[in-house]
TrEMBL record:
Signal peptide feature range: 1-23
Protein's recorded name: Expansin-like EG45 domain-containing protein
Cited CDD domains: DPBB_EG45-like (cd22269)
Domain Expansin-like EG45: start-end pairs: 26-126
PROSITE patterns in alphabetical order: EXPANSIN_EG45 (PS50842)
Superkingdom to which the source organism belongs: Eukaryota
Keyword Protein biosynthesis: no
Organism: Penstemon davidsonii
Length: 126
């Protein structure tokens, strides 16, 4: 029994480390106009959504994919913008010429950081 528990704990630690290691660094901004979107037109997908920047867009192939996003720090003088939480967002739009990797909905951004920051450093993974 103790061996099974030990193996489960070790597996959990290894899985967490691999998950963190696979996260990509980037930046996030936020927006407040949700529809229409480049992926789904006027269909509403809630508020935990995001738009993909040009490098991620791939002619819309990213539409519908979900990403776990975590704030990792500030990009400007706003001290300690991160809340310590992560958020899962669905890609529903394209953000051509966007200043960040992901352009989050205001609600998704506020879940992971103080909106006063405007732009933050993030780790994101599918």
């Amino acid at each position: 029994m103790a061996l099974k528990v030990s193996l489960a704990i070790i597996f959990g630690i290894v899985a967490t480390l691999i998950s963190v290691a696979l996260a990509a660094p980037g930046t996030a901004t936020f927006y407040s106009s949700y529809v229409p979107s480049a992926c789904y037109g006027n269909k509403n997908y809630g508020v935990m959504i995001a738009a993909a920047s040009d490098p991620l867009w791939q002619n819309g192939a990213i539409c519908g994919k979900t990403f776990n996003v975590t704030c990792t720090g500030p990009t400007n003088p706003v001290p300690h913008p991160c809340t310590g939480a992560s958020v899962v967002v669905k890609i529903v739009d394209h953000c051509p010429g966007c200043g960040g990797t992901l352009d989050l909905s205001r609600e998704a951004f506020a879940h992971i950081a103080n909106p006063v920051a405007g732009i933050i450093k993030i780790d994101y993974r599918q």
